[in-house]
Write a structure and sequence with these properties.
alpha/beta; Arc Repressor Mutant, subunit A; D-Maltodextrin-Binding Protein, domain 2; five-stranded mixed beta sheet; 15 strands; DNA-binding transcription factor activity; sequence-specific DNA binding; LysR_subst-bd; transcription
Length: 305
């Protein structure tokens, strides 16, 4: 007979790519994970994993069993969560992914508040700026900036953030301060490399895209902020990155008469995951922590209003 522990060991190994990585994820000794895999293969009467000295791969039977294993573990977790919710306690594992910079600046403290409220939940958090595949990468939910276009996912909005053009006083003294949209093309831009046509502004005739002279392209908001502080150029950043620097005067919010496209923060999870009580409780807790409007959107900061 199959044991749930064996299925969990197989799933962790398939997702992590090695038995040693799976053992770290499960918090078990490598020998225990290997033993549970062997017991599962014996119960099923087939080889699921092909082991060599160089790599580990799934057999044809393993590839066929993988989606069933994912469903079994997910349904077991959801059953546990549902029963815990009915008893007034949320419990069990919750694997999350969030962007690196936002995770360090804001999500970490909000998540700690959630865990204090629900100490029986076992959270595993990975910070990653790439757009992870929720189901394929084994996550229960992910935090994302911007719209979630994957129709396999349910997305719930957590917060709306403004984005502001910012530059250091040193840069503005050297290159001048832009006062209109047309001025931006003559300036040096610190650009986010993961998004094309990132500098979008709402004008009376619709959306307008500006392409400044690139001074730096990077896929991390904190490095963009550091570059702006150093006087490298102008950056268009969400207020959750720059609100403190604007308040201190280290960065200046630029007013060019129009407003930049905003940034939205979502939590997304697979449609077939169900309305798990843990994810919904996390979303509610995050909204409360961030506020409406979010605490990083200082009402005194204006641009194009």
């Amino acid at each position: 007979m199959m044991k749930l522990s064996g299925i969990a060991a197989f799933l962790a190994t398939a997702e992590a790519g090695s038995i040693s990585a799976a053992s770290r994820r499960l918090g078990l000794a490598t020998s225990v994970v290997s033993e549970r895999l062997a017991d599962l293969e014996k119960a099923l009467g087939t080889k699921l994993i092909q082991r060599t000295t160089r790599k580990l791969s799934l057999t044809e039977s393993g590839l066929s069993f993988l989606p069933r294993a994912q469903r079994i573990i997910r349904e077991a977790d959801e059953a546990e969560a549902e029963l815990a919710a009915r008893s007034g306690t949320l419990a069990g594992p919750l694997r999350l992914s969030a962007p690196v910079s936002f995770g360090a600046l804001h999500f970490g403290s909000a998540l700690c508040r959630f865990l204090l409220e629900h100490p029986e939940i076992d959270v595993s958090l990975e910070l990653d700026d790439r757009f992870v595949d929720v189901a394929a990468d084994g996550f229960d939910a992910v935090l994302r900036h911007g719209p979630v276009g994957d129709t396999r996912l349910i997305a719930q909005r957590l917060a709306v953030s403004r984005r502001l053009l910012v530059a250091s006083p040193t840069y503005l003294k050297r290159y001048g301060c832009p006062v209109a949209l047309t001025d931006l093309s003559n300036h040096r831009g610190i650009l986010y490399s993961n998004r094309e046509s990132d500098w979008r502004f709402r004008t009376a005739s619709g959306w307008s895209v500006v392409r400044p002279t690139p001074a730096l392209r990077v896929n991390n908001g904190m490095i963009m902020k550091d570059a702006a502080l150093a006087g490298i150029g102008i950056a268009l950043l969400p207020t959750f990155f720059v609100h403190d620097s604007i308040a201190s005067g280290a960065l200046v919010a630029l007013d060019i008469g129009v407003r930049a496209e905003g940034a939205e923060l979502f939590i997304a999870y697979a449609r077939d995951h169900g309305s798990t009580a843990k994810i919904l409780a996390l979303a509610a807790s995050l909204r409360q922590s961030f506020g409406e409007p979010p605490y990083w959107d200082n009402p005194l900061i204006t641009q194009g209003e």
